[in-house]
Amino acid sequence: MKKRILPIIVLFIIVAGTFLVWFFLPSNYYIRQVLKHGAAKIDDYTYFENRVVEAKAPKPWEFSDQYNDYSLPEQYLPTFEELETVAYLIIKDSTILFEQYWDGYSETSWSNSFSTAKSIVSLAVGCALDEGLIQSVNQPVSDFFPEFPGYDGKVLTVCHLLTMSAGFDFDEQSYGKIIAPVNKLYYGNRLLKDVLAVKEIEEPGVYFEYQSITIQLLSFIVEQVTNESISSYVSRKLWTPMNAEENALWSLDKKDGVEKAFCCFNTNARDFARVGQLLLNKGEWGGKQLVSAKVISQPPYSRIPPLRIKYTRTRIINTDISSGTLLMKELK
Questions:
Q1: Within 13 Å of residue 111, how many CA atoms lie on the same side as its CB?
Q2: pLDDT (0 to 100) of residue 303
C-alpha cells in the first residue's frame, strides 16, 4: 500500500511545485492580480500606482439657467441601475444643464475612463502631428520602434494604429478569461516589454479589429517624440488649456512605471465632459486651437477598413449612446 501511495505523493509534489514555479514567474504577475482583484472596476485607481495629470488653470463650467430643472424619465432608471451608473451629466451650449450622481459619487469623484482614454491618446497624437513631432499618420511605426517593420512587405503606419488595423496577434475578445492578453495589459507590470513583444501576423490596413494594444503603442510613440510622459504631455497640451477643474490620475503598470494609456484615465464627470466639448468645438477652447480642426474633422478614421470581428461590447456601448440621446430629448 505504501509503495502505491509514495509515487502518488511524489507526483503530486512535482506537479504542485511546477505549478507554483509557473504561477510565481514574473511574467505571470498579472494572473495573480486578476485572481486577487477580479474584473476591472471604475475605482481600480485606488490600488494601482498613478501619475498626476495636472490641471494648472482650473475654471469651472458655467451653469444653464435651467440647471437641474429636469428629472430623469422613469423608464431609463432600470438601465442606469443595470449599468451601475454613478454619474450622468449633460452639457448644452457650453453650460451644465443637468447632472445627477449615485452610490456616493459626486461632481469631484474620480472614475476610470476605461476606453475613453483612447480618445485622449488620439488627441495627443493630433497635438504631436500639429507640432510636427510625428510627420504624418502615414509615418512608419518602425521609425519609432524597429520591432514593428510591417508584415509581408506592407509597412505598419501610425494610421494603422489609430484605426486598429495593425494585424497584431492580440485577442481582445478574451474578456472573462483569467489568462488573456487584455488582462496582461490591464494588470501587468511590464507594459512596454509586453507591447513590444506582440507579433505582426497579418497585413496591416486590411481589417479593423478592436485591439487596445494599438493605442498603448501610440502612447509610447507620443512619449518618444515629446520626451515626456503621456500624462505630462496631455496636461500641457490639453488638460490645462481646457481649464479642467481637478487633477486627473492616469494609472500606471507599476511604481514610476508607464501609463495604462489604453484605459485608466481617472477624473470626474464634469472634466470628462470637456473632452466631448473640445471635439464639438473642433479642437478649439477659449479662443485657442488646442488641436487643429483638420485633425478633428478629417481624421484617418474615415478610412477604417472593414470590420472582421464584432467587438463584444459594441451592443452595450450603442445602448449607452442611444439612451443618452433619448434622455437629452426626453428630460422633463
A1: 23
A2: 64
Q: Which residue's entry shows cell 503603442?
A: 217
Res 15: pLDDT: 66
Please report, as a single letter, which amino acid is at residue 23: F
In 3-state terms, what secondary structure has residue 125?
helix
List 140's β-bridge partners, or say none: 157
pLDDT per position as a tens digit, 95-104: 999 999 999 9
Going by C-beta distance under 8 Å and a sequence separation of 6 or more, which residues neighbour residue 129? 136, 137, 292, 295
Of the candidates 199, 170, 196, the residue with the CA atom closest to the CA atom of residue 309 = 170
CA dihedral 232, 26, 173, 257 (to 10 degrees): 0
Instruction: State the average pLDDT over residues 302-311.
Output: 61
pTM: 0.87
> What's the CA angle centered on 213, arms 41 and 294, to 5 degrees?
100
Report CA dihedral (269, 270, 272, 275) to the nearest 10 degrees: 150
Determine contact, residues 109/86, Cβ cutoff 8 Å. Answer: yes
Gap between the Cα atoms of 172 and 168, Å rounded: 11
Cα–Cα distance for residue pair 18/75, rounded to 1 Å? 54
Backbone angles phi, psi at 92, to 5 degrees: -135, 125
Tell me the residue type at 46: T
Is the pLDDT at 215 greater than 50? The verdict is yes
Instruction: Give the closest residue to 191 by CA, choosing from 231, 251, 112.
Output: 251
**Nearest CA to 34 among 249, 189, 196, 148?**
189
DSSP 55-121: -SS--PPEEPTTTT-----GGGHHHHHHTT--EEEEEETTEEEEEEE-TT--TT--EE-TTHHHHHH
Phi and psi at 110, nearest 5°, equal -75, 145
